[in-house]
């Protein structure tokens, strides 16, 4: 056993290494920052900056795609030169600066660029530390990414309630300012809890070291195909903060007694259900593992994509039967229940898959490769989102169901190829 791991073993909170709690809280506040700004972004562009919906959706997709493009460079820089901790501190500082810069309308696009660049350094390097808190065969390791994912969504739950309310009621810049403060809190937690975190891995000096870990160029092809399927999936999945948010403003009856529920609050439903359902999903997988019949990573991911497709087809049926009459908020709640449970089967599982298969010294780079698929999907989601107005809500939601359903079929078909990669990695680790 690694001596440093032995030394950290007694230091646990809630049955997990203390470092997981530090990473959980850091990520929670970073996501409070990111999703707080994101909850306001589409409305800020349409209402305040007076962008047409089609242009605003395209810019939204380009921005949310850009924040997942820069991590491929940020992960590489951390693995080769900066180290993960320094990359996280620099990246978080740039993101906070970007959120505060949104206070100036004339600096709108530079502010988005600062956030995207900072995110590139921050995003791949924080989750790549999760696996290093555990030994290779620790039974807690498999579910650790789902626990970490709760931190992601706890921040995303609070963000629309706080930043969204401040932005809609008191002014856009109060909401963006709260997002910047959240990022600063996350950085402070990371610095204060640094002693509980694993040391940086040795930095990769040669790209060829991937082959020494049982990982070859041929092994990358199945992961590349998985990434392409996730690109297609995310082009539909990412509409929840884009066109779905636009439709909800007029298409959902938000009256609650004499009050009207702020439309940004609906974006808290997804992270709320992640928070509520994750323990049950992880417990179900653990029981299945004990019986020896836990689904493979790609089987879970294909089920998740199929579930998201089902949720969009539910919306299509609602939109076609109600026409221009607003639907009850209860239907939106039902949509997010299905959408969220499905999400738990694909997004944290995919992140854990790429982190688990990363060769030693290349954890940040491989996690960044997972987020590169998110870049492609978010960018494509902006192109897809432009068609909401021309197709109408019912037909548009059918389109989203078809897109995510095709991704589910592709992921299911890739199971045999990925199994060969995982088997080769296990054989190399045992050698």
UniProtKB/TrEMBL annotation:
Membrane-crossing segments per the record: 58-78, 108-126, 147-167, 173-193, 214-233, 265-285, 297-318, 330-354, 366-384, 396-414
Pfam family, one: PTR2
Membrane topology: Multi-pass membrane protein
InterPro entries named in the record: Dipep/tripep_permease (IPR005279), MFS_dom (IPR020846), MFS_trans_sf (IPR036259), MFS_Transporters (IPR050171), POT_fam (IPR000109), PTR2_symporter_CS (IPR018456)
NCBIfam families: yjdL_sub1_fam
Keyword Glycoprotein: no
The protein, known as: POT family proton-dependent oligopeptide transporter
Keywords: Cell membrane, Membrane, Peptide transport, Protein transport, Transmembrane, Transmembrane helix, Transport
Source organism: Roseateles saccharophilus
All copies of domain Major facilitator superfamily (MFS) profile, residue ranges: 19-419
């Amino acid at each position: 056993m690694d001596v440093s791991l032995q030394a950290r073993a007694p230091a646990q909170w809630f049955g997990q290494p203390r470092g997981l709690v530090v990473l959980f809280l850091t990520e929670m506040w970073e996501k409070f920052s990111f999703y707080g700004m994101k909850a306001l972004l589409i409305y800020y562009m349409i209402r305040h900056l007076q962008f047409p919906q089609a242009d605003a959706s395209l810019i939204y997709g380009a921005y949310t795609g850009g924040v997942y493009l820069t991590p491929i460079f940020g992960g590489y820089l951390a693995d080769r030169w900066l180290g993960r901790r320094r990359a996280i501190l620099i990246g978080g500082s740039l993101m906070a600066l970007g959120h505060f810069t949104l206070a100036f309308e004339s600096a709108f696009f530079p502010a988005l660029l600062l956030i995207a660049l900072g995110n590139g350094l921050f995003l791949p390097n924080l989750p790549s530390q999760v696996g290093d808190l555990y030994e290779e065969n620790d039974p807690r390791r498999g579910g650790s990414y789902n626990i970490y994912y709760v931190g992601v969504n706890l921040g995303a739950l609070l963000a629309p309630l706080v930043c969204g309310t401040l932005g809609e009621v008191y002014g856009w810049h109060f909401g963006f300012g709260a997002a910047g403060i959240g990022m600063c809190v996350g950085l402070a937690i990371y610095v204060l809890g640094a002693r509980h975190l694993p040391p940086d891995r040795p930095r990769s000096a040669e790209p060829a070291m991937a082959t020494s870990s049982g990982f070859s160029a041929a092994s990358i092809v199945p992961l590349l195909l998985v990434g392409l399927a996730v690109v297609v999936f995310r082009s539909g999945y990412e509409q929840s903060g884009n066109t779905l948010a636009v439709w909800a403003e007029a298409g959902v009856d938000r009256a609650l007694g004499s009050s009207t529920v702020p439309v940004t609050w609906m974006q808290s439903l997804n992270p709320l259900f992640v928070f509520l359902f994750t323990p049950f999903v992880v417990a179900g997988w653990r029981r299945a593992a004990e019986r020896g019949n836990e689904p493979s990573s790609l089987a879970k991911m294909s089920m998740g994509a199929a579930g998201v497709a089902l949720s969009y087809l539910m919306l299509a049926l609602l939109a076609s039967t109600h026409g221009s009459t607003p639907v009850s908020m209860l239907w939106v709640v039902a949509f997010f229940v299905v959408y969220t449970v499905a999400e738990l089967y694909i997004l944290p599982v995919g992140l854990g898959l790429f982190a688990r298969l990363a060769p030693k010294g290349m954890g940040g780079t491989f996690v960044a490769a997972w987020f590169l698929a998110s870049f492609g999907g978010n960018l494509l989601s902006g192109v897809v989102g432009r068609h909401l107005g021309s197709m109408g809500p019912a037909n548009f939601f059918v389109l989203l169901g078809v897109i995510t359903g095709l991704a589910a079929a592709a992921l299911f078909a890739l199971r045999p190829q990925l199994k060969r990669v995982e088997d080769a990695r296990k054989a190399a680790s045992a050698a």
